[in-house]
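Q: I have 116 residues here and want to know how they pack in 3D. Can you give me a structure?
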Amino acid sequence: MKLIPYNFMKSLVTGLVASKGIAKGNCVIVNSVTDFSKVKKGDILVVKNTDPSYVILFSRVAGIITEVGGMCSHAAIVSREMGLPCIVGTGNAREILKDGLKVVLDAEQGIVYGLE
């Protein structure tokens, strides 16, 4: 499926498509395991990178955005296995995206659009 951006959608972050798909939801910034309780069903997970401890969150989220990593990173591999849209290597997603911000994660084009 290809997303056709509407005029109210602003491109906020770009990165490498690690697992294709499109998801819409609220951003949740996770900096460490102490933030895991913030993540709700349907959220878009925004992290520096992931490791095996983050897998518990993958069943809750609609998509994943990481600041670092490539096609062989942990987030990329696990998101492909679970069929989750994922963009990696955004560089500064945690600075631009904030908790609760409504976004469309276009992991067909590698772009995160803001809806507000």
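Q: Anything worth noting?
A: The CA atoms of residues 20 and 85 lie 5 Å apart. The mean pLDDT is 93.
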